[in-house]
Amino acid sequence: MKICRRAIFNSAHRLFRAEWSDEKNLEVFGNCSHPNYHGHNYVLEVCLEGEVDPLTGFVMDLKDLKEIIREEVTERFDHRNLNLDCDEFASVIPTTENIASVIWDKLRKRIDQQYALEVILSETENNKVIYNGR
Ligand code: NI
Fold it and tell me: How does DSSP assign 61-111, residue by residue?
């Protein structure tokens, strides 16, 4: 059985490589490379797969999952500039792929190994990435 909890955070970012020119960055990263940063309304879904506990009828109490997501993700990233405010992206370009990977690593440390963990992150209504550790 798989259970999912949704969370939203708003963050600014810029996709660029410092050693590339602005023109080259714009060519590779498009609008997400504008020098003065811009924001996205990120939609995160965190899914856990495991057995239903016969005592509670839960896979995991979603209140507990909500709290872990708040501590590990929204408190750190909501209303932040990912490039400037978050050490996680000091040397990692904050693409949707890399943000999902960072979130998965943080959550994996907090969630019991009995559960398979999947992170789904949408940067826009049309773009999403799904990461389950590989
Ligand atoms: Ni962007």
Answer: -HHHHHHHHIIIIIHHHTTEEHHHH-GGGSSS---HHHHHHHHHHHHHTTS
Determine the distance separating the centroid of ligand 1 and the alpha carbon of 64, expressed in angstroms: 31
Q: What is the pLDDT of residue 115?
A: 98
Q: What residue numbers bound the domain in which 94 lies?
A: 2-131
CATH number for 78: 3.30.479.10
pLDDT in tens, 38-54: 999 999 999 999 999 99
pLDDT in tens, 59-109: 999 999 999 999 999 999 999 999 999 999 999 999 999 999 999 999 999
How many domains, the chain? 1
User: How far is the centre of ligand 1, averaged over its atoms, from the C-alpha of 38 (Å)?
Assistant: 6
The CA 81 to ligand 1 mean position distance, Å, reads: 11
